[in-house]
Automatic annotation (TrEMBL):
Keywords: ATP-binding, Kinase, Nucleotide-binding, Transferase. SUPFAM superfamilies: Ribokinase-like. The lineage of its organism: Bacteria, Bacillati, Actinomycetota, Actinomycetes, Propionibacteriales. PROSITE patterns: PFKB_KINASES_1, PFKB_KINASES_2. Pfam families: PfkB. This is Fructokinase.
Length: 315
């Protein structure tokens, strides 16, 4: 790989607790950990051996220092301008229910530094709050438009946040526009229920595949596994039985493993998933499901390394 995968989006601190007392300064019975969906994907990719650069923005306050140490410690490159002394680091308050499933409230500002594509970059990934919160969302839309004729694969995980975009109709319209500029789109069953109530995951996948560029849609289904749909194949992968600690970051681990699996099969870059077979699709989705499963067995957004994945599930 001649250049790192480029990930664009928010990096923030997850303040995880079970009480409404959770505050920005960390008072009460809470745990503050690095997070943000795109940042989690970047860390997941780096841990799986994929060189990764993250375009984000956070400050040099205590939370920002925590983020920087986490990202650098996991081998993620930060794009110029990502660390801004004048920026207040964003946070997400995650409240866990009895099953370990998280719901979020956000304190976030999003305005990325300048976006550019390095020669040889195999893939650009974006999604989550960064694609809907202005002014940064507009910058991402324009950047993706500029990639139309570039030899790079674009992946998208909308990761819908109803607390930020409560109108499913307008949000789905925005997702459709971004998906049409992406080769691979990943959604969760919760995304589907919010964005397209009454539609089945397969219906949604087929709707997104009507865009000329989109080649594959993958929909995660929690403990049931995931559905992968391409123009030529459909696979349904079952999740392994595990003891869930919490689900924080599981979808991001899935996304990073999906990209890593495609990179291993040399389907990124100018190929843009051309030649993706049913066998390829099943194997990369299975790899991603198992990466997410590992994350669910431990606290917080803690994606597995290559060695951990191999030790748990085999090479």
């Amino acid at each position: 790989m001649s250049a790192p995968v480029l990930v664009i989006g928010e990096a923030l601190v997850d303040i995880v607790g079970t009480a409404a007392k959770t505050t920005r300064n960390g008072n009460g019975k809470t745990n503050a950990t690095p997070g943000g969906s795109p940042a989690n994907v970047a860390v997941g990719l780096a841990r799986l051996g994929v060189p990764t650069e993250l375009v984000t923005r956070f400050g040099t306050d205590a939370y920002g220092d925590q983020l920087g140490a986490h990202l650098f410690g996991n081998g993620v490159q930060l794009a110029p301008g990502s660390v801004d002394p004048n920026f207040r680091t964003s946070t997400a308050t995650a409240t866990l229910d009895a099953a370990g499933v998280a719901t979020y409230q956000f304190d976030i500002t999003w305005e990325p530094p300048a976006l550019s594509l390095s020669r040889g970059c195999p893939a650009v990934h974006t999604g989550s709050i960064a694609t809907v919160l202005e002014p940064g969302a507009a910058a991402i839309r324009e950047f993706l438009k500029s990639l139309a004729d570039q030899p790079v694969t674009v992946t998208l995980d909308p990761n819908a946040r109803p607390s930020i975009t409560p109108d499913p109709v307008s949000t789905w319209s925005a997702v459709r526009a971004l998906a049409a500029m992406s080769d691979l789109v990943k959604l969760s069953d919760e995304d589907c229920e919010f964005l397209r109530p009454g539609s089945t995951p397969l219906d949604i996948a087929e709707e997104l595949l009507t865009a000329e560029r989109t080649q594959c849609v993958v929909i995660t289904r929690g403990g049931k596994g995931a559905l992968g749909v391409s123009r030529d194949a459909r696979v349904d992968v079952t999740a392994p039985a595990i003891e869930v600690v919490d689900t924080v970051g599981a979808g991001d681990s899935f996304m990073s493993a999906l990209i890593a699996g495609l990179e291993t099969r040399e389907l990124l870059g100018e190929r843009r998933l051309t030649g993706l077979t049913s066998e390829d699709l099943r194997e990369v989705v299975d790899y991603a499901v198992k990466a997410a499963a590992i994350t669910c067995t431990r606290h917080g957004a803690d994606p597995p390394t290559v060695a951990e994945h191999a030790a748990r599930w085999g090479a």
